[in-house]
């Protein structure tokens, strides 16, 4: 944990052409990490936070909603490769419904809203060096997407992975690309500034941004929320949703006792012995969706005052340099969450939304739901709707179904019908035939096998 480690890391970043705000942000968090900071948020220091308002209670008129959407820019995070699911390319290019990808559906949702409301509603992707080329090639199918003066994407930053033993930049000659990592989606803010996009949006009359993850197809720009946020005068708003069994480990907003500000707490910021409180749905009944709204002018002012560096809470992420090889060199990745900016705005608020706005796909469990008859996709708007409430709980054996290639092999005819299911637990290696139906709560054992065509699985 010597100064040489810091200097080496910063030199690497400058040599790679990383922007000054990103370098300065990394230096800030490196110093905190080297000083022993863990980023942990103790349960005793916070109290539960309930939504400021509910989406269902918002009733602006059509003209007000249209005006607010006309001053809104949509920013979608698209930096991930989906390596945890065995993908080699951008996760956004994974087919999810009728051969349409996350990216296809996201673009079509925005285009449909433009047509309906008559607004420009620019869509800008925050890409990584790993996703940019393939993503822009895929966007070639949508020449009508571009908005004059606004780019289709901008690049997030990159930083060195640090050896866990001495915090020097790790070396991995077998694949030097693995020596680098993204700095978490908190990099959104300095990258918006460094890319010039923040200035461009403001110059062209946009006043607020709606940000979400590309793998959450429920995160559709919403006129009611846009109008409410514009009228609220708040600088920042986070959408939260009632917790279910599928997201017991989801990050959530809490209120810091010392100053009363909203704070985002993730699992990586929670001590193991306090996870029981973190996952207590009675105490913390809402989870963060990562659907965010913020005032563009307020953000620029804040960034300019701080030299492009936002002091977001540190997340110390312990990994191995090759995430697929647990025996490779242990490293620390310095990360921040974009939702962590909630505590920087004294007037930050939260809005309670329904599950239709939160359909994340982090594992093949959620992917199976999304590909099943539990969801329908409107042909005109490309928006999802859930056909049953609540959605069934899916628990597939990770060692068998965790990688997308293995998953697809075991569902060669697509997902089974799940609209009559409450829970599907698959403990072993099972392959599903055509026209399989699941009813109630079903468990398939560790012995594995094949589910024949036309089978109805029931308790």
Task: Give an overview of the whole structure.
It contains 13 helices and 26 strands. The chain is of the alpha/beta class and 459 residues long. The protein folds into 2 domains: 355 residues, Alpha-Beta Complex (Spore Coat Polysaccharide Biosynthesis Protein SpsA, Chain A), CATH 3.90.550.10; 94 residues, 3 Solenoid (UDP N-Acetylglucosamine Acyltransferase, domain 1), CATH 2.160.10. An 8-stranded mixed β-sheet has the order 2-18-12-15-11-3-6-7, sandwiched between helices. A 4-stranded parallel β-sheet has the order 21-22-24-26. Helix 1 runs antiparallel to helix 2 and helix 2 runs antiparallel to helix 6. The model has no long low-confidence stretch (mean pLDDT 94).
Give the structure's gist in a few sentences.
It contains 13 helices and 26 strands. It is an alpha/beta fold and 459 residues long. Strand 19 (375-377) and strand 20 (384-386) form a beta hairpin.
Coarse shape = globular
Domain tally? 2
Q: Strand order of the main beta sheet, please?
A: 2-18-12-15-11-3-6-7
Determine the CATH topology of the largest domain.
Spore Coat Polysaccharide Biosynthesis Protein SpsA, Chain A
Termini, distance in Å? 56 Å
Query: In the CATH hierarchy, what is the superfamily of the largest domain?
Result: Spore Coat Polysaccharide Biosynthesis Protein SpsA, Chain A
Topology, please?
Layout lengths: L2 H13 L4 H15 L11 E3 L4 E2 L7 H9 L1 E7 L16 E3 L2 E2 H16 L5 E5 L4 H8 L13 E3 L3 E2 L1 E2 L16 E2 L6 H8 L1 H7 L4 E6 L9 H10 L3 E7 L9 E5 L5 E4 L9 H4 L7 E10 H10 L9 E6 L9 E6 L13 E5 L10 H8 L3 E3 L6 E3 L6 E4 L1 H4 L2 H7 L6 E10 L3 E3 L4 E8 L4 E3 L4 E2 L2
Helix pairs in contact: 1-2, 2-6, 3-8
